[in-house]
């Protein structure tokens, strides 16, 4: 009888017990099934989307409203001074209201058209539109008040010039204190509305940059659904 050979290969079942099983690659299986990346990625993407929505809402709020701050009191006082200037003599014995409605005293002083245009613009934009902009805090009304006050400042200069260049053949008075006070007040209103509008423009620009930055962050984390329960990042 022959001795059994020790070099014979082990039985298949013994080899199966000895050889360790290699684990399957988790990345390949998860990609094949289209599973989510991780809870951290999902939370980061959701936070980026929330930040983008918050920045967009803040930009809309800034775009629609103004915040004059302490200038609101200055504008309110200037409006009161403007109304007071209408009670002072505009030229001769005619005050601002009489010039505005072309009363007999205004016609007697031969008031020119620039004075009436100035007073009309001062009432419409320097007083009425300025008060509406302060009450509503609307950016569009502030812009209208700024443009109207700037135009009134120009016509105020023309009104003063027209009273200083009256024909010597006419026995009429020159520039009255009401015209000078009203003109100076409109210039003050123009300056302050310019500062308010400019400050709001800077704030809107900052908010727009912030929204774009948040949108870029959200785009970096944004994901597109590829099936039930699965998604993959958007490729740029």
Describe this structure in words.
- The chain is mostly helical and 236 residues long.
- The chain is built from nine helices and four strands; from the N terminus they run ααααββαααααββ.
- The protein has helices spanning 12-18, 26-33, 39-64, 71-85, 96-100, 104-108, 113-136, 139-164, 177-221, and strands spanning 89-91, 94-95, 223-227, 230-233.
- The strands form two sheets. Strands 1-2 form a two-stranded antiparallel ribbon. It has a two-stranded antiparallel sheet with strand order 3-4.
- Strand 1 and strand 2 form a beta hairpin.
- The longest helix is centred in the last third of the chain and has 45 residues, at 177-221.
- It is elongated, with a radius of gyration of 39 Å.
- It starts with 11 loop residues before the first helix and ends with a strand.
How many strands, which pairing sense, and closed or not: the largest β-sheet?
2 strands, antiparallel
What's the shape? elongated
Secondary-structure element order, as H and E?
A: HHHHEEHHHHHEE
**Low-pLDDT runs:** 1-37, 223-236
The separation of the N and C termini measures 77 Å
Helical coverage, percent range: 55-70%
Strands in their spatial order, largest beta sheet: 1-2
On the 0 to 100 scale, the average pLDDT is 73
- How many H/I helices? 9
Strand content: 5-15%
By helix and strand content, what is the structural category?
A: mainly alpha
Instruction: Give me the Rg, rounded.
Output: 39 Å
Please count the beta strands (DSSP E, at least 2 residues each). 4
